[in-house]
Write a structure and sequence with these properties.
alpha+beta; two-stranded antiparallel ribbon; globular
Length: 648
């Protein structure tokens, strides 16, 4: 089957920006188009081109590191790292700057989403005249709902009228805008579009990676769940534009929790070609990308710069490159070993930058909190998800071309061979105290510690800092064209950025059940499907070796008899750590301040292994992001009431 990626750059997107970036994403085939006119969508070619641009627009959101930062930094999972600039510092809400309309990088979402929404409006309006199937129109309806769902969670109420009427295709620049309320966005756009998508999309994708019933069911269930929380509003978080938390269709929060549960179970029971992978490792290992657990992703390729949408040798640090994985990759290339066995020479770059999943290009902008390592992933023996999420061992690659000739000596001046561990982040504090040699250069040049009899330098969980920390293995790069060398680690990742997974149907249903939904499966039963899978191992990243083990019984036994929302959030973090889910999860459940109001992390200097407790100031108005300054500046007339409160 052909992949959607095959078509994306045949139809390259060009933005024709208006006030709301409301003219649609323009496409290039053989002749550039500065804009879409309605007649273009009255052809099957035009409809298919518009649909292809919708898949392409995902690259401008997912894998875009500055937007990714807004979804992770400031949560219980992630804080800023040593090399962070203001794009990252302000999002931490720990006194390093202020989030405002100019500093919040959710501008990446605003511009891209509205451009795509207008394209979807055009396809939906004119596609029937082109004689295309309802299934193709349903793809456009899915993406319109997809973007509006992102927008309403991020900004609150947003405009349904882009200049030509609500949900109408706009071809003329406009400099005025009216924001709809949150209930209007859900009930006029998101729910009707997703219901139509569930009805009309095929069970199996028309191309690898295109939208299906299962994907639409997941997003409908998530939308119902999120809207139910919004109606309930347990912590009195303000909304904007101000409106009564009353559903226009007359349903209460409990009705929506129940519908979220029902739709999620429909997805589980009618999976089509989708399902859970055998192990958590299989979900995220690069060689198994685009597997049947993945319902949607922003795709890339190493076979062609044209189809990839970016350089295959040196990434630009901007969309459409997939460069999010660089952010939580620390500068491991500073690590040094020794050419001498008698005294520490600090002269061998034993872990070089390479295009493999465990390493990649280091930017040191974001790092995990100590609590994420010690609390969220407390069980590192039975639960495979810690091992399948982080790079915890950095191995020498001196045998890769250009070869570094040995011998090479490491901790305790013990000799190491190609592929041996140079630095290990320990799972827990060892019985024997870690000794940190001075100066820091004698600790692998990064202030790492030593244990007796070990050739690898070590850092226990309490020693994780803003400058040295476990990397995010699951987002690491992968290339098949590296040969015997180090490959192209400076390029953007050519892997897909995963957006939606089949596993989330279980977690959505479980959360709805905790909130009172009833049916054939309890929250504990649903969670245990995911936890049982997490107990199955086939590979040990830490040991770099096969590990055939099944601890699913122990995982199930450890599940609490009574599941609450916080436990659901813990499971979501274990399953989706670092994938861009966390801010949305904490905001939806109104647990952001409770779970992320403080965190622990070491300092920004090598050798700083003393954890500090950092407090955040998370105000109720922070539960919405500011409308981007570019939008505010482009509007005519009095726009003083357009901005979200707290950012005015």
């Amino acid at each position: 089957m052909k992949t959607i990626n095959h078509y994306i750059n045949k139809w390259m997107m060009v933005a024709s920006v208006t006030l709301l970036l409301s003219s649609c994403a323009d496409l290039l085939e053989e002749q550039p188009r500065s804009s879409f006119e309605p007649g273009f969508f009255e052809t099957e070619e035009g409809v298919r081109g518009g649909l292809t641009s919708m898949y392409a627009h995902l690259r401008y959101i997912y894998g875009q590191a500055y937007y990714y930062n807004t979804c992770q930094t400031g949560t219980d999972e992630v804080t800023y790292a040593q090399s962070a600039d203001q794009n990252f510092l302000v999002m931490d809400l720990s006194g390093q700057g202020v989030i405002d309309a100019s500093t919040s990088r959710t501008d990446a979402l605003w511009g891209t989403a509205f451009s795509n929404i207008n394209t979807a409006n055009g396809v939906i309006k004119f596609a029937e005249e082109a004689g295309v199937s309802d299934a193709l129109i349903a793809e456009a309806r899915f993406f319109r709902a997809f973007d509006y769902f992102l927008l309403v969670q991020t900004f609150g109420g947003v405009p349904l009228d882009l200049g030509a009427g609500e949900l109408e295709f706009n071809t003329n620049p406009v400099r005025t805008s009216v924001r709809n309320t949150v209930p209007e966005v859900y009930t006029k756009s998101i729910f009707p579009d997703l219901l139509a998508a569930v009805n009309d999309l095929p069970a199996s994708p028309r191309l690898t990676g295109t939208a299906t019933k299962t994907l639409a069911r997941l997003y409908l269930a998530k939308a119902y769940l999120t809207y139910a929380w919004w109606l309930e509003n347990p912590n009195n978080i303000p909304t904007y534009p101000e409106t009564q938390r009353v559903d226009p269709d007359g349903h209460d929060a409990q009705w929506y929790f129940q519908e979220a549960y029902n739709i999620a179970l429909e997805g589980i029971d009618n999976p089509g070609p989708f399902g859970l992978q055998e192990t958590f490792y299989d979900v995220n290992v690069a060689e198994n990308d685009r597997n049947n657990e993945l319902l949607l992703y922003a795709d890339h390729t190493e076979t062609s710069e044209f189809y990839n949408g970016g350089s295959l040798t040196y990434g630009s640090g901007g969309a459409p490159d997939n460069f999010a994985g660089w952010m939580m990759t620390w500068n491991y290339t500073v690590i040094r070993s020794s050419s001498s066995s008698s005294q520490w020479a600090n002269d061998i770059e034993s872990v070089r930058r390479a295009a493999i999943q465990a390493t990649g290009r280091p930017w040191t902008r974001m790092c995990p909190t100590i609590g994420a390592i010690t609390n969220t992933f407390a069980d590192k023996s039975n639960d495979s998800r810690y091992d399948g999420t982080f790079t915890t061992v950095y191995r020498t690659n001196i045998d890769r071309e250009p070869v570094i000739n040995g011998p090479v000596y490491n901790a305790n001046l013990m000799e190491v061979q190609p592929g041996d561990a140079i630095l290990t982040f320990l799972d827990e504090a060892p019985a024997t105290a870690v000794q940190y040699p001075t100066p820091t250069s004698q600790g692998a040049n990064i202030g790492a510690g030593i244990l007796p009899g070990r050739a690898d330098f070590v850092i226990p969980p309490s020693g994780i800092s803003r400058i040295v920390y476990p990397g995010l293995w699951k987002l690491g790069p992968y290339r098949t064209d590296s040969g015997n060398g180090l490959g192209q680690p400076n390029a953007g990742s050519t892997r897909p950025f995963n957006i939606a997974k089949f596993s989330e149907l279980y977690l959505v249903a479980a959360e709805a059940a905790v909130k009172g939904a009833t049916g054939s499966r309890s929250a504990r039963e649903l969670i245990n499907v995911i936890r049982a899978r997490a107990g199955k191992w086939r590979w040990d990243n830490n040991g770099n070796q096969e590990k055939i083990a099944d601890y699913s019984a122990a995982m199930i036994a450890a599940t609490p008899q009574e599941i609450d929302v916080n436990y659901i959030l813990e499971e979501r973090s274990r399953e989706y750590f670092g994938e861009g889910y966390r801010w949305f999860d904490l905001v939806r459940t109104q647990r952001w301040n409770e779970l992320a109001g403080s965190y622990r992390i070491g300092g920004s200097n090598y050798g700083d292994h003393t954890p500090q407790t950092v407090n955040r100031t998370i105000q109720p108005y922070h539960y919405l992001r500011p409308i981007p300054q570019g939008q505010m500046d482009s509007m005519e007339g009095d726009n003083s009431q357009y901005q979200n409160p707290g950012y005015q």
